[in-house]
Amino acid sequence: MGLIIFLIIIYNVMIKTNPKLHDKMKGRVPFFIALFIVLQILAFIGGNLSNIIGNLLAFGFIASPFIFISWIVKKIKGIGNKKTSEEYQEIKREVGADIKLTESVPKRKKIVEKFNEKYSLCLTNDQIDRIVEASYSSYSWLRELYDMNKDYKFASQWIEENNDWLRTYLFVFPVMDISSDFARQEQIVEDTYYAIFNDIDPKNCYSVEDCIIKINNKYMTRFDEKTFMEAYRFLQKHHHNFKLPGADRNILRNESEVEKLAEKYDAFKSKRQKEAVDREYSKETQTAGQYGAAGESSTQDYGNNDITPEELEEMIRSGKLNDDEIMKIIKQIYGDGEDEEENKSIYI
User: What is this structure's pTM?
Assistant: First the structure.
């Protein structure tokens, strides 16, 4: 019984919070159980052996306080290093409080396994072990475990909360590459997204939705519009700009066509307005020639380009020209109509 107590103390103090020792000892549990049974049998057979075991137990009880004290010192030192870490301070500012998560390796592993099963993340056992181990040295991975331990109605809520580029990667791809180094993990995700989007041919896709369907069929992924655009914006932040098919490009093309039509309409409208003004001026000059008052005679010879319709109208309204002078100016500007009669006779 004393040996069992001793092993429990050793497990909780040294093995439970150490990922590497935990993984090593997990496969040797049957061996220790068999060894314990053999020792118990031998204890009943030989008195000397039982004395040795008793001495070992006594030594274990004596050493236990020292092991416990060393564990406390290690924890205090770890907390000090944690709080001086730049990454720790950054996450602390982000969440507004310390991240409190169990120090037990099995419990952390259970968190990831449960989350992996709930949302079908396709993480292997080795990848789960890698994430759990990294959570003891990387606060970014610790944050991931911390958020996995929360309740979400939909996976999209989990993706939006933090590190959407990583969570989109974990959710969408059936085969992933997990690194304990978070910076390298970001590079892995960037390379994977780049390979996917570089394979997109906008000319062969009718829309973004059509493009997503083709990608999912080819790569066995499960992109939807949200996760697809999350990956697209992540690449944009890393200076990778890809053209997407669909609505955006159609809108730009339609805007260009509308602008061209507007220009044509403005030109047509200006032309029609000019024609209407010219007709109005022609009517006014003819009316003025018939009913305008007599004025001073003028011997000036007006060429076709020497006077404008506006100037002619002003001269007529001034009353300084008589009818003959007005008709003479009109014939010089617009012609006397003889050429038009000749042209008509030619066609006849």
Answer: 0.49
